[in-house]
Amino acid sequence: MKPIYVEIEMESDVEKIWAYTQQPKLHEQWDLRFSSITYNEKLPEEDVQTFTYSTKVMPGIEIVGWGESKGTHEKASGEKTSALHFGTEQLLSPIAEGKGYWKYIPHEKGTTFLTQYDYKVRFGVFGKVVDRFFRPLMGWGTALSFDVLKRWIEMGESPKTQYRRFFAFYAICFLFAFVWLYQGLVPKFLTQHPLEISMLTQLSPLTAAQGSTAIIWIGGAEMLFACLWLVSKLQKFLLKLQIVIFPFLTLSAIIAAPTVAIAPFNVITLNATLWILSIIGLLLHEQLPSANSCQRKRGKAV
């Protein structure tokens, strides 16, 4: 497996980026991979800074590890490099031990901030199989964190606010994926609910038998639409599409079966909720941190 490489351009000087990445209380705020970082006491003559870190996997479960950091000023140009050695003894972590570095390269427009790191996995062949899924996730988390740091430094927006917006947005997207999947699978594809067929025949020249077949195809289309919500490049377009179509879907349902408007948790309340969530999602998307802002291969433009 190739080492993880992430690079980003920042409109800031090396010293400021160095401070935001080398001070534990600042570092732990923007780096998604760590929940806390604590430096151990260091003697003045020591070159290596040791620390402990923790990562909360879920409520009540966290991984605790160790690390060693060595910062150096390598060139007269102002370029800096920070070497890192890290690991954990906890079997819950796929990572046993790893090494890497952060590099800060100044230029006329700001600083190129990059990292490359690699690690050894535990559990032999099984660990290597797991790492085929875990390593891309680590690379994504590193890239997302770098963009959060960039926005914090350049725009002054705190990482906590950025992550809240990010996870709120994707919670909305996963909700839409669930809603469309359920609506396509259960009332249309699996049960072919009589009300679904009745509304379709009321709005079209189809017979009941034809409507029964058509509703299955509509269910399949809705399930496909649900899958599209998992494609990040399409989410903004899908939100705009829903803002347009939900009023028409609501009106069509009322015309086809007026009684649905007075039923508990009816089509009006459901679609109005989804319509407003679509607007909220679109607003959140405008200022969303993204792993795509980073270069993921050495020498390859974003």
From TrEMBL:
What keywords is this UniProt entry annotated with?
Membrane, Transmembrane, Transmembrane helix
UniProt keyword Transmembrane present: yes
Q: Name one Pfam family in it.
A: DoxX_3
Q: Which domain of life is it from?
A: Bacteria
What parts of the sequence cross the membrane?
167-186, 206-231, 243-262, 268-288
Q: InterPro entries from the entry? A: DoxX-like, START-like_dom_sf
Q: What is the name listed in the Swiss-Prot or TrEMBL entry for this protein?
A: DoxX-like family protein
- List the source organism: Planomicrobium stackebrandtii
Q: What is the lineage of its organism?
A: Bacteria, Bacillati, Bacillota, Bacilli, Bacillales
